[in-house]
């Protein structure tokens, strides 16, 4: 999410305030628990070297989050006023019904939490409503809403789940058609230039219509609207590598658009922090939204299965409506909560278990999963994110690299920027062995081999027994790494008493309501910050070097994340989000869209 003001390069004043906060915090700490002040001041090192960058990131995030929460609205008038201020338009008709629905479900009502909707829908103001209606209907997998009843023409299981979700709110919905992406992979990437043109139209059309001109009722639609409108040929194609498709949505002067295509032929990918500066502060994520944006990170083309070799590709450059459960930052899908979140399947939720209390958990990291990410082969697996992560969390590999007995196949040692005590003592591998337990349960070989084994990765990874999610909650730390697309475990992780550590290039419906360093720990897609994150939380006791642990901070984020997820990621919240989304979408598909609005609050 983009709530946190980046502490990366704060204006001088902000930084001074941050340090002051840390200073006061330290003073209080030593007053209550430590040596007399005089001694403290004698022994204290300059504050700038004693405060960890993660402390600063947490403090910055906490203060931004407090600001966001101040915006909570408790009545319809305030919510409508905030809407007009943030969106520059009247709310859509039905806003009062939506607000009442949300309030009855005790939702936390902050307009910012719906930002993703406006990001996804904005460019549709540039398409004529008739074209939206025609192309939405003219698709093989759709949900249709007519006369407040939702139906689907397909019984594909994702469609059924989304239909179930839509049906629960159908009595509040106007007529519309929802074309659905039923693939794992996102499909629409219109060129940046085209989206920019559409957004220019959106900005020009944005206005608060005089109250007396406002139309308050949606159109009704025939079964197949606008059959006389020409539906454009979306020309879905299988373009590979997907990187070439994905960067179409990047600005023309971006590093991604200008970079040469990298070819992976069995070599170790280049892993460096060169392109991380815009989204990190002293090596740690300061802008999580930006960290998933590859337009300034051309090296990610060789570091993610989605870019290297997705399982399937069927993509279009035509900007047209399609709903989906996740997407890349440059995709144009309209996000819905992913089916597994609504369906609450056991493998994605832990079956309702949330884990033991923090103090009873193992002070360790657990990761188990399948070697997905796309189609891995002997030539390309070294770039795949899960392979890279599992290798880096393998203490034996790290020790072997430290002693030069095994060259890292698909990862790189952390740079000195992280000042890792264990690494400085030559003990990074030994230390990692103490707390890391990551492994594949299936190597997903191509071609498939018996018993989940693989001729080309089998010597690098040992197949492990699976561990049900509920059992993983016995561990404090849960890294969450993208698979073929986004990782469906994330909601389950957040709702547990353990602490998710998240790296991703995918966007999801909930992104505007989750705050890095408050509700989860963000990690860079190269994972080089992984050891530093763990050193901060676990601490390190070595021969000469000692680094204090920050277990309290970990527990605090884990429990804040759980509490927050139970407030804003409930199925109720998905309904509230989807209702708001579909009211907006219906307005965009309406010939009177410029005049449609909710203004009852202004007429009183
Ligand atoms: C993150 O980066 C984006 C793109 O530069 C920017 O719009 C946004 O404000 C940043 N967010 C934070 C929290 O700094
Ligand atoms: C809409 O549904 C209601 C009851 O659910 C029904 O009475 C009415 O005839 C329907 N209208 C149309 C146009 O189908
Ligand atoms: C959605 O699915 C659940 C679980 O199968 C079922 O109980 C519920 O009735 C369904 N709701 C609708 C509106 O179809
Ligand atoms: C469809 O896409 C392919 C590959 O991008 C392109 O060569 C072809 O001209 C396109 N066809 C149409 C009708 O746009
Ligand atoms: C696969 O595992 C089964 C049971 O452990 C074993 O009997 C079989 O020989 C294995 N197959 C191969 C090809 O290794
Ligand atoms: C860890 O790395 C060693 C050395 O490369 C390898 O033999 C072992 O199978 C790896 N373990 C796992 C769980 O992948």
Could you characterize what this model shows?
There is one protein chain. By secondary structure, the protein is α/β, with parallel strands linked by helices. The chain has a domain at 76-235 and 320-336 and 577-603. 37% of the residues lie in helices and 9% in strands. It contains 26 helices and 14 strands. The strands form five sheets. A five-stranded parallel β-sheet has the order 9-8-10-11-12. It has a three-stranded antiparallel β-sheet with strand order 2-1-3. Strand 13 and strand 14 form a beta hairpin. Helix 1 (12-33) crosses helix 4 (53-69) and helix 18 runs antiparallel to helix 20 (428-435). The chain is globular and about 75 Å long. It starts with 11 loop residues before the first helix and ends with a helix. The site of one 2-acetamido-2-deoxy-beta-D-glucopyranose (NAG) has 3 residues, from helix 9. One 2-acetamido-2-deoxy-beta-D-glucopyranose binds at residues 2, 4-6, 287, 289-290.
Question: Could you give a quick summary of the protein structure above?
Answer:
This protein has helices spanning 12-33, 37-43, 47-50, 53-69, 76-87, 95-104, 115-121, 129-137, 157-167, 192-205, 242-246, 255-258, 288-291, 305-308, 339-343, 346-349, 385-392, 395-402, 421-424, 428-435, 469-472, 490-495, 530-538, 551-568, 571-588, 600-603, and strands at residues 142-146, 149-152, 176-179, 280-281, 284-285, 323-324, 334-335, 362-370, 436-442, 475-481, 499-503, 521-522, 540-541, 546-547. The chain has 604 residues and is of the alpha/beta class.
